[in-house]
Amino acid sequence: MNVRMSFLSWDVRKARIIVLVVAALAFFAKMALAASTRGPADVRFFQGFAQAIAQAGPVRIYGEPLPHLPVYNHPPLASWMLLGMEKLMGFGVPFPPMIRFPACLADFLTVLLVFEIVRRRGTVRTATLCALGAALCPVLAATSGYHGNTDSVAVMFAFAAAYLLTDRGRPLAAGVAAALCISVKFVPVVAVPLLFVAAWRAGRPALLRFTAGFTALFAAVWGPVIATVPAGLKANVLEYAGGNFSFWGLVQFARWAEVPERYIGMVRGDGHYLIIAAIVSVGAWLAWRRPADTPVAVAVTLGSLLLLSTASGVQYLAWPAAGLFVIGLWQGLAYALVVGSVTTSVYGMQRPVHWTDTEMAFGALGWAVLGVCVATGVRRILTAARTAAPADVDIARPRVEPSAASPASSGASSSSGASSSGSSAD
């Protein structure tokens, strides 16, 4: 028995090494792309934001007019990050690769999270393939290595929060990660309620620790801005509705169908709050039904947000890219291949806000693929909730479903899952 356990544990360690090496190679490839390209206009805008923050400060920036720049819609932690980058520029560090470094590093960490999350719910083989798929995903290569922005960083913290809460039983750290995810980019706010629901389902001590971690970090990062320039923060960050471009999703479909602009304006205005409320409600419901699959619920929620978004941005396509590999291997690969072709094309021609008819067609196909993937994620959670044993309520030790693998591989998965809470077998 000891020999068999040692062999199975070595399999996990070997898989981790493979994933780590490929993720590192992908990281360096993205950084090479970042160092050899100028990037889109956002790179120039971020540099302008960094210079403005150096003048006004990371708190007062929300109350300052920026006549030659877009709306500064980034949360307070991004302001501190840009201030640090502006200081590094003074030492000769070039800004274009520097602004894309956080997204590239976040992708590296997300790949490791995908492996750990999936292996606790399936086989080591499946987890390895899903992690490698996330590492080599062309959507993330293009959005992180070329575009930059902070979308991938926020997604990484969202999955870190789910992993720490559900698989590691560390609600305090999970609460900190949950606050970090919305402090970098406000987009993952749709996943925060379901994390609170999962913490609630874990018991009162877990909920209190999660809340304490979240509140402490949120107060430290957001508190000074809320106290100083609340109106600017509300207008620029909390109420930001996205750009006016239309090449993805509901708004584009409505225009193809020649829906009157006044109705489209209603959906893009106050109507988008109803969409967000529905997404949040479904995510919280899924976390309540199956707290052990909270990471999958996060993936479904981020995918649903892009699916039903009323704003278009090529970098937005990164929101569900890694999470779909948490839902399943074919889901992640299908999205990576179809949507990856779009991102590679539009970034390769350096015109992210102008899509050709062919790119629009592939974008529509990618939207449909995303819809199917999100639906399978919902179905997976609900099916597991119906068939789960009572012990599965313990979210720190999710049970590996027997149907996820053959008898031999199920043994390997169960062994690795049993050691997920920090045993020496890992």
TrEMBL record:
Q: Which domain of life is it from?
A: Bacteria
Q: Sorted alphabetically, which InterPro entries does this protein's record hold?
A: RgtA/B/C-like (IPR038731)
EC nos: 2.4.-.-
The protein's UniProt keywords, in alphabetical order, are: Glycosyltransferase, Membrane, Transferase, Transmembrane, Transmembrane helix
Show the Pfam families listed in the entry. PMT_2
The Gene Ontology terms for molecular function here are:
glycosyltransferase activity
- Low complexity bias spans: 402-426
Which residues does the UniProt record annotate as the domain Glycosyltransferase RgtA/B/C/D-like?
73-217
On whether Cell membrane is a keyword of this UniProt record, the answer is: no
- Which residues are listed as membrane-spanning? 98-115, 122-142, 172-200, 206-229, 271-288, 294-317, 324-348, 360-378
Q: Region Disordered: which residues?
A: 400-426
- The protein here is known as Glycosyltransferase family 39 protein
